[in-house]
Amino acid sequence: MNPKVLTIAGFDPSGGAGVVADLRTFAVFEVWGVAAVTSITYQNTSGISGVYHLPPQAVLRQLEAIVSDISIDAVKIGMLGSEETIAIIIPFLQRHRLSPIVIDPVLKSSSGYPLLDEGGIKLLKEKLFPLAEVVTPNLAESSTLSGVVVSTLQDMKEAARIIHSYGPKNVVITGGHLKQKATDLLYDGKEYALFDTPKIKTPSMHGIGCTFSSAIAAQLSRGVELKVAIKKAKHYILRSLQQPLKIGEGRRVLDPSIRPD
Ligand code: PLP
User: What SS3 state is found at 198?
Assistant: First the structure.
């Protein structure tokens, strides 16, 4: 029987990021995906012009409908939008003892549009991170979350230690925007592990963070060990970046015909 993986995230109508990208990634990794939408974004491949956060009760009712019927083997959390939504999701996750939880701490779009309010960032760090098996910030997100300006591997180590102190079991800082190599850093509270891939030149891309964290959640739902899951997710992204798909006039997306090895 296929594992079932839940994503709790935003809706990008162009399909490049958010729940649509998550569900596509789950399918590519051959697990069944279910989704609860937190916010509707008004966006296409060229950018975001607005967001509408669903009332927290509407988010909760989607979640309760899912878990009253389907047993969940892993959870991926992406864009949450508001403090109120996080405040309703935390007791939901605890009530149903859902795990493992992968959190992609979506704070802003690449173009700088805020996707989580200030109160939400605080609650995310203090109350949601402690429930996570792993959190997967990129360089910009790790800077905001840790207060360290992160641009080198050394900065990543410092930020990972600070973010780990908020309570997640593991922190992976994704280094796709580092200058030399695309090195991701894993910190489990004791040791660092590095995951290297060469840096390749691509047009501007959309939905990489969503896809990376969903690929990890899909594998954890099968009991794959975290380091193995990160390595495979990273290699899958690299192969996808080598063949970006153009669907509109703006940023490129990941081609779902590319399969993980
Ligand atoms: N829209 C949604 C719904 C998202 O979840 C995300 C990021 O995770 C974005 C937009 C931003 O994507 P990008 O970082 O490619 O701008």
Answer: coil
